[in-house]
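Late entry, written up from scratch paper. The run itself happened at the end of the previous shift, but nothing got recorded in the book at the time, so transcribing now.
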Amino acid sequence: MTTRNKPIYFEQLHYQQRRIFNFIKRFMDRYSYGPTMREIMTGLDISSTSVVYYHVNRLVETGFLEKGHGISRGLRIPDHYFEPPASVSVPMLDEIITNFSERVPCYGRRHEIPTEWLRGRAADDVYALRVNTHLMYDAMVNDGDVVVLRRQSRLNDGEIGIIMLPAKKETRIRRLKYEGEWVCLEPLMSVMQPLRCRQDEIQIVGKVLGLMRQF
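Output as recorded:
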């Protein structure tokens, strides 16, 4: 956003450059790629593409635009000009999926979760799960609560995840502590007793990112 080491602020740009910048930003928000020069000319009712070229080049010089050479749709706005959305939509599950070779389709019911829960990672393997069992009371999770999880089959020591106990046909939310071939499933409520199992006696379904509850 500088030219000859002198800062240029958005308000200091030529009004036509501000119009073009805002047009490209709206276009990228909608299509995820940049417009052509002719699309800018038509969309803003500018007299010619040469005028568009002049102002676009000025925006590139000042750092408000980036331009890929030899690419018809090479215009893009640097990422720092886009504010991340406060929430993101993820698939809503009614039951735990244990087949890790298949992805949940992106269509169907969805749920809004805080973007910050992704911790900078893509939402491809993040899901919302509506709890419909009392077996998670030891994690202070009630029927109807929504647990947000990232589907994965391994947890690091001390992480909280959704754990299946096939022999007991139970599902729990527990903190994992590894002890060699054994694992300790620690409840989130101190009044409950931890459960010690062999690692081959449990199935990790995913890492818990957060809990959403309506009162």
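Residues 15-31 form the longest helix (17 residues).
(Scratch paper discarded after transcription.)
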